[in-house]
């Protein structure tokens, strides 16, 4: 590694008036010495007269070095000096000329930022973005309904193979994780419930609590959240990757409607598999709750079954499961919508996948609250 | 000590000996030797699947050969430790086929990325150097603030070249720099590479299928045939008897590019 370059500032020069200076640059002006060179050039003080930049002692030069010399020259120019040059050695001339021609950038004035106003503008832009997205999502729902209508008229248009394959991926393959989670939630509910109810001597109501909370809320909500994380994200990533790869455009120019080919099968598949998964989750939740009840409150499985039978009616189950197709629609809708919004880069696939999961879960919970109000109003 | 005026024989910048690459049972390279001299432009050509990209990846250390030695700037790359390797890696720049710009960064941040990693420059100087590179490769200054997905194919290549030049490398590796560009854009890119190469004193290794590029800027050409490499100037390779090389340099496209045989000048109709 060669030694760092140097720069010397001396009075004198061609005109030899008192305020003239010669800046002599020498040695290696390269990126590896840039820090030292940057400090050295910062120390140069231009005078009012002629500043001669003497490059004849340069040994090696790269574009970063040439830039720093040019920068020193333009500072001297800005400081009121007249700038004169002594050429660099022959072999360095082409490089220096090239950087010189690329030239110092035009001076731009930094735009003044008023913090509060900027914050306000950002807030406004974000609000508008959210509103616009809500509108887009509703429009997307409308066009999905239109597509589904066309499919009902002509069921042959639906990609049945794709539907079945998505049922397998979103439903069948999710059985282990959904079952596991529901079982454990049943166990936890029974455990906590028994603990609290013991204080009132109402331990036996643990079964009622487990039955009602699993069937009405826990089964469907947990399943929907797991599916939003599992399948909603997969929908966005799959369609998003196709979008990046221009496959969606290829579909369009082939005369195939992405709504019909990509979105409809996913929506229909999820609307079939989520209710089935919910049923499975309900069973597993009751099973978990039952196991724990048997341990904690000393009842037999037969007794558990009988108490459960008295505690819950078919309505309790229906109130839970009726939400499943709606949640499935929301999750699939958001997943596909965000997937089709992917543009350009791989990074946007990741960003929109995250967003699709967050929005999916958010909508599921909003609608769950809405259903609670509705059912209590209807008296279920 | 050698006398100052004694002709010094510079060691080759890149020196490959007996490179063997295989993937499973498939042998891609079977004893490839290659010397690249300082300051020359070496073109690598070969049919699809002959392992041009694999060879390039082998040289820059993304693919470890089954056998053979790689010497770059006098150092045996396969034997080097991590930190020594990095020192050599700072001295080359690579332009991948589609630019391989980091999509989450703007163009100027892309160029700053290697500078950030390998130097400790003050931020404003780093930004200025990155902006200089943007102007050097002929991009408009406004392009610096854009994200790669907002650039056209040609602009992506230029931005990729600017990033490859970020550390002022001595060696530049280019993977099909003109593929996907229109002929005018490709010719401009060739000129850009040539002028940068001459003014910055670069050694360039480029994979190309562009016969115009080969004729215009390559000093020597390495042809991958039969799992080995044949090196020569354009004129030498035109005399070669190997069927593929013959077909390559004497085909209709070669003639159109003004290589291999003469193209009868179109006669004005009387």
Describe what this molecule looks like in 3D.
The complex is a heterodimer of chains A (380) and B (270). With 380 residues, chain A is of the alpha/beta class. Chain A folds into two domains: 6-102, 2-Layer Sandwich (Transcription Regulator spoIIAA), CATH 3.30.750; 158-378, no CATH class. Chain A contains 13 helices and four strands. Chain A has helices spanning 34-42, 63-78, 93-102, 115-153, 160-170, 175-198, 206-244, 247-253, 258-296, 301-311, 314-321, 323-340, 346-378; strands spanning 6-11, 21-29, 50-61, 82-86. In chain A, strands 1-2-3-4 form a four-stranded mixed β-sheet, covered by helices on one side. Chain A is elongated and about 110 Å long. The termini of chain A are far apart. Chain B is α/β, with parallel strands linked by helices and 270 residues long. Chain B is built from ten helices and ten strands. Chain B has helices spanning 52-59, 82-89, 107-118, 123-136, 153-164, 183-200, 211-217, 234-238, 243-250, 252-256; strands at residues 14-23, 26-36, 41-46, 67-72, 75-76, 92-95, 171-175, 203-207, 220-225, 228-232. In chain B, the strands form two sheets. In chain B, strands 6-7-8-3-9-10 form a six-stranded mixed β-sheet. In chain B, strands 2-1-4-5 form a four-stranded antiparallel β-sheet, covered by helices on one side. In chain B, strand 4 (67-72) and strand 5 form a beta hairpin. Classes of the chains: A alpha/beta (380), B alpha/beta (270). The interface between A and B is medium-sized, with 28 and 28 residues.
């Amino acid at each position: 590694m060669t030694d760092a370059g140097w720069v010397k500032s001396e009075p004198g020069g061609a005109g030899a008036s008192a305020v003239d200076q010669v800046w002599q640059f020498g040695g290696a002006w390269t990126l590896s010495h840039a820090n030292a060179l940057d400090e050295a050039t910062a120390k140069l003080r231009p005078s009012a007269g002629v500043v001669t930049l003497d490059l004849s002692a340069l040994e090696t030069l790269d574009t970063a070095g040439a830039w720093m010399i040019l920068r020193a020259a333009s500072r001297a120019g800005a400081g009121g000096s007249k700038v004169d040059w002594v050429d660099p050695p022959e072999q360095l001339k082409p490089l220096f000329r090239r950087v010189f021609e690329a030239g110092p950038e035009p001076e731009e004035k930094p735009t003044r930022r008023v913090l509060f106003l900027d914050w306000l503008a950002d807030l406004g832009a974000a609000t508008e973005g959210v509103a616009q997205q809500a509108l887009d999502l509703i429009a997307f729902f409308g066009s999905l309904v239109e597509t589904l209508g066309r499919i009902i008229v002509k069921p042959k248009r639906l990609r049945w193979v794709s539907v079945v394959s998505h049922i397998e991926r979103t439903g069948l393959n999710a059985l282990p994780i959904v079952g596991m989670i529901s079982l454990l939630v049943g166990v936890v509910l029974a455990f906590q419930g028994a603990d609290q109810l013991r204080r009132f001597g109402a331990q036996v109501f643990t079964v009622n609590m487990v039955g009602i909370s699993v069937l009405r809320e826990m089964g469907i909500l947990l399943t929907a959240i797991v599916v939003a994380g599992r399948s909603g994200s997969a929908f966005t990533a799959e369609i998003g990757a196709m979008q990046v790869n221009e496959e969606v455009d290829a579909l369009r120019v082939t005369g195939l409607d992405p709504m019909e080919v990509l979105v409809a099968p996913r929506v229909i598949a999820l609307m079939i598999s989520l209710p089935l998964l919910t049923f499975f989750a309900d069973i597993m939740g009751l099973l978990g709750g039952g196991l724990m009840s048997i341990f904690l409150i000393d009842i037999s499985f037969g007794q558990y079954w009988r108490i459960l039978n008295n505690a819950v009616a078919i309505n309790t189950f229906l109130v839970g499961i009726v939400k499943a197709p709606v949640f499935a629609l929301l999750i699939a809708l958001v997943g596909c919508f965000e997937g089709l919004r992917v543009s350009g880069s791989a990074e946007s696939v990741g960003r929109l996948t995250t967003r699709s999961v967050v929005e999916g879960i958010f909508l599921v919970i909003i609608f769950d609250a809405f259903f609670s109000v509705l059912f209590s109003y209807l008296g279920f | 000590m050698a006398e100052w005026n004694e002709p010094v024989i510079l060691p080759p910048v890149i020196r490959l000996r007996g490179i063997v690459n295989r993937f499973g049972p498939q042998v891609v390279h079977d004893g490839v030797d290659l010397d690249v001299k300082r300051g020359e432009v070496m073109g690598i050509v070969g049919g699809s699947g002959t392992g041009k990209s694999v060879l390039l990846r082998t040289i820059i250390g993304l693919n470890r050969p089954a056998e053979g030695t790689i010497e770059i700037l006098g150092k045996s790359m396969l034997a080097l430790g991590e930190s020594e390797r990095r020192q050599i890696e700072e001295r080359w720049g690579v332009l991948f086929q589609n630019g391989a710009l980091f999509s989450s960064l703007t163009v100027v941040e892309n160029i700053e990325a290697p500078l950030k990693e390998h130097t400790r420059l003050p931020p404003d100087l780093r930004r200025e150097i990155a902006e200089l590179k943007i102007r050097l490769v002929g991009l408009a200054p406004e392009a610096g603030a854009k994200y790669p997905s907002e650039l056209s194919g040609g602009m992506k290549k230029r931005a990729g070249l600017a990033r490859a030049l970020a550390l002022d490398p001595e060696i530049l590796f280019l993977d099909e720099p003109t593929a996907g560009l229109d002929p005018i854009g490709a010719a401009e890119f060739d000129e850009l590479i040539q002028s940068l190469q001459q003014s910055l004193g670069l050694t360039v290794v480029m994979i190309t299928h562009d016969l115009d590029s080969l004729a215009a800027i390559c000093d020597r050409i390495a042809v991958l045939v039969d799992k080995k490499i044949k090196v020569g100037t354009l004129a030498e390779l035109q005399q070669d008897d190997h069927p593929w090389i013959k077909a390559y340099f004497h085909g209709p496209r070669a003639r159109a590019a003004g290589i291999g045989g003469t193209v009868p000048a179109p006669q004005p109709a009387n």
